[in-house]
Amino acid sequence: MFSLSIASPSSLKIPPKTTATLPKSSFNGIRLPTPYRASFRSPSSSVVMMAKREEELKEIRARTTEELNEEIIDLKGELLMLRLQKSVRNEFKSSEFGRMRKRIARMLTVKREREIEEGIGKRLSRKLDRQWKKSIVVRPPPSLKKLQEEEAAAEAAEKS
User: Which of 21, 61, 89, 136 has its CA 20 to 30 A from that of 80?
Assistant: First the structure.
């Protein structure tokens, strides 16, 4: 039969590692070489995405602050609707979450840039933001309004 014995750590001899090809670091563990990862995106697609983003920023900067506030409220309502769709397990595009959050962040950034130009400090900005949030009148987001209009039109078509 076979006999199995366990060697003590001091008697175990490991061949020396060749560190000539690996960079020096303070990490004392085993370093595994990582395979080269090629980028799946072509450089031209990132340029197009940058151009779209620049166009969107120009469009956002062209709006007044009041229009930005209204758009932010609408987008936050749309984000809430998406969360509700997700919780009910309806079909939705999961990429819309990130797209809407980024659009809201861009608008808030432009809004803050304008405040900085006017000389409004960080503390006062937070105070004004809290006041603005308290003054928001709750209203249904545009997608819900559109859905309600479509349902009303379908009911009207059934009655006639």
Answer: 61
